Prior knowledge:
alpha/beta; 5-stranded mixed β-sheet
Amino acid sequence: MAFRLFNTLSRTVQEFVPVDGAGRNVGLYCCGPTVYDFAHIGNWRTFVFGDLVRRYLEFKGYRVNHVMNITDVDDKIIDRVRETKSPLGEFTARFEAAFFEDLKTLNCRLPHHTPHATGHIPEILALIGKLVERGLAYRTPEGSVYFSIEKYRAGGGQYGQLVKLNFDQMRVGERVANDEYAKEAAADFALWKARTAGDGEVSWPSPWGPGRPGWHIECSAMSMKLLGPSFDLHLGGEDLMFPHHEDEIAQSEGAALQPPGQPFVKYWLHGAHLLVEGKKMSKSLGNFFTLRDLLAKGFTGREIRGLLLRAHYRETFNFTLDGLQDARVSLLRLDDCLSKLREVAAQGSATQQPPGPAAGSEALAALTEQFTAALDEDLNISGAWGAVFEWVREANRRLAENALNGPQAAAALAAWDKVDAVLGVGAPAEIAVPPEINALLEARQAARRAKDFSRADALRGELKAKGWLIEDTPKGARVKRV
Ligand SMILES: [Zn+2]
């Protein structure tokens, strides 16, 4: 079935048709972190959204080349390097390592390429050179290079493809040095920033004098190097639409490396903002969370991932601690159902037979179809979760009625595994119980065998305090998360 996505370029939901004529390879570029601090939960919403797009494309059978840049030089980083008096590489390495650790905690698939801005200075200089050569960029007396919006438009370039801009208000030839600015301040933007005293050691030689790249040009240079001058999908938070992505289009299409009639990017996807407890996240309001802050409160990566995946990517999402609790409860319900299905599947087909033909497993195996139908429609994640929890209800009903045999349970689990290759929230049964909990369970069993019931009770209490309940089943004791 066709996969349809909302393309910011056309402002419509469009069928996804890859640039690759064979319809198999897909290039996906996600704007990555600026490694000057720990990423916050709003950033993580976008990265988890990127992971959902990647996983779903792979689920659909595409071979995805996923690129995510690491911005390891920019205004904010240089300020911090100056404050902390640490070398640039040392400063950014720490936050980059933390970023990849967090990415793993949230069970995001690692991008195939994670290029660094500082590792691509020659490509960046070559692209700026091309723009200068084409008359679209100019050097200022102090040795910076700016992109001329006027020249770009005069040559037929369209500035304002993602956002509507009022060119009557725009003052021609005015320049903006900062990487981030509002739509109303749209002006010629910096491709290369001449070295200033405040930059310290952070500069590279260039044909225009020593300096460093602007933020926008790095994404153009690295995406086109790794995915070609015209590729499928470019993704980021909606705050990147302007100026970052608009400037990327201008630079990349201004360099005219694309085959005739081909855009720099075919589909632009933007994830909406995240509020925390109903308000814009801010340190002064006390609602600013990094992933680590939430882990310190006792939540797990999969619970946080589960919550971040709850709302449609184009809707503003209100992230709350109560929501995290709900995500925990939902996942426990799911885990409980999966572990029961695993037990029935492990028993094989001989022990139980469903009572009649109506108890076939078709309804459970239909999970993947319903799930796919929802996600095909611009990643309708609510519909996808709806299919999952309907499946859980149905599986639980059949389990309670003893109306599932081994192969049916195994088929239901196989359907779940396919779906979880996209959601990435399933806890494999074997790692669900930490070793220290298993050791306590063992000790409790040993105490019972030795008829030391007070010790057995104490161990049961200890397990409960750690959040695990003992269940005595015909197959022996096991633990379950409270
Ligand atoms: Zn970018």
